[in-house]
């Protein structure tokens, strides 16, 4: 909690210390990264004989954001898959039990570019949204036809699902690889005030989820489920397209 308070204090201080001069524009990016999510509590619902759910997740994201005089609003969708789940793909036909653990989240994001140059952007972001944890358990087992008739078979796939309120605190850095200089009708170099092209960047941060023990399985409730919150640190590499200008008309799309 102390780390969170320090992070928020630094975020507010930086924003108050920067003048409201900034660019207008949009960016669409995809990301690949790593998340360290504390998953110790999930051992209570891991079947004996199955590989444990680790603290290591590989994440994929898509993000759309708009800049307005340095202020940023955006939306992001994420999927993070447990590292052991990738190995289960190759062991599915040999292991009696395999587990595929995934985290799905959606966020509305707000931030401010504390460094807002034509080719460089540095911006803290705060996101608010929801997370959905899904754990799929596959059992390799032989059954008798009579078990199906009598209703004694559990089937081969068992899904566990939980939802959490989620907050995200991140810091991003982008570099825009400009696609070349452009001249306006008067011969002025527009590249001094516009940047448009390939975006490459990094983002680091912390996602904070609220704990709960409300688990569901294939439509039913799970009694005495673990009190779990998928909170932890992450780092991402981003790649995408961006277009920025220091003119408001460019942000509105009103070109000469």
Give an overview in words.
The chain has an eight-stranded antiparallel barrel. Helix content is 14%, strand content 53%. It has 256 residues and is mostly beta strands. Strand 2 (56-68) and strand 3 (71-82) form a beta hairpin. The longest helix has 16 residues, at 2-17. It contains four helices and eleven strands; from the N terminus they run αβββαβββαβββββα. The chain is elongated and about 70 Å long.
Provide a concise account of the structure shown.
The chain is mainly beta.
Write out key terms for the chains shown:
8-stranded antiparallel beta barrel, mainly beta, 14% helix, elongated, 11 strands, 256 residues
Helix and strand content put the structural class at mainly beta
Give me the Rg, rounded. Answer: 23 Å
Total DSSP E strands:
11
Estimate what percentage of residues fall within beta strands: over 45%
Strand order of the largest sheet: 1-2-3-4-6-7-8-11
Number of helical runs? 4
Q: Quote the average pLDDT.
A: 80
Helix content class:
10-25%
Largest sheet: 8 strands, antiparallel, barrel
**Alpha carbon gap, first and last residue:** 51 Å
* C-alpha geometry: elongated
Low-confidence stretches: 16-20
In N-to-C order, the SSE pattern is HEEEHEEEHEEEEEH
Secondary structure elements and their pairing?
Elements: H1 2-17, E1 24-37, E2 56-68, E3 71-82, H2 83-91, E4 97-112, E5 115-116, E6 120-139, H3 145-150, E7 157-178, E8 194-209, E9 215-217, E10 220-222, E11 232-245, H4 248-252
Antiparallel strand pairs: 1-2, 1-11, 2-3, 3-4, 4-6, 5-6, 6-7, 7-8, 7-9, 8-11, 9-10
């Amino acid at each position: 909690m102390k780390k969170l308070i320090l992070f928020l204090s630094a975020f507010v201080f930086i924003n108050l210390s920067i003048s409201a001069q900034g660019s207008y524009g949009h960016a669409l990016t995809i990301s690949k990264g790593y998340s360290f999510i504390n998953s110790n509590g999930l051992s209570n619902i891991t079947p004996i004989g199955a590989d444990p759910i680790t603290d290591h997740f590989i994440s994929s994201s898509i993000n759309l954001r708009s800049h307005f005089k340095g202020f940023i609003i955006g939306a992001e969708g994420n999927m993070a898959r447990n590292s052991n789940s990738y190995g289960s793909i190759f062991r599915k036909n040999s292991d009696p039990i395999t587990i595929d653990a995934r985290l799905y989240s959606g966020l509305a994001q707000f931030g401010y570019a504390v460094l807002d140059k034509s080719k460089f952007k540095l911006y803290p972001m705060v996101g608010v949204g929801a997370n959905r944890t899904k754990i799929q358990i596959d059992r390799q087992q032989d059954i008798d036809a009579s078990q199906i008739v009598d209703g004694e078979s559990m089937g081969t796939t068992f899904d566990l699902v939980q939802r959490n309120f989620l907050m995200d605190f991140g810091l991003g850095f982008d570099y825009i690889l400009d696609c070349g200089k452009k001249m306006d009708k008067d011969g002025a170099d527009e590249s001094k005030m516009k940047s448009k092209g390939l975006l490459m960047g990094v983002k680091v941060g912390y996602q904070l989820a609220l704990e709960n023990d409300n688990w569901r399985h294939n439509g039913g409730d799970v009694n005495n489920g673990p009190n779990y919150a998928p909170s932890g640190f992450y780092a991402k590499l981003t790649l995408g397209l961006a277009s920025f200008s220091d003119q408001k008309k460019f942000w509105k799309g009103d070109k000469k």
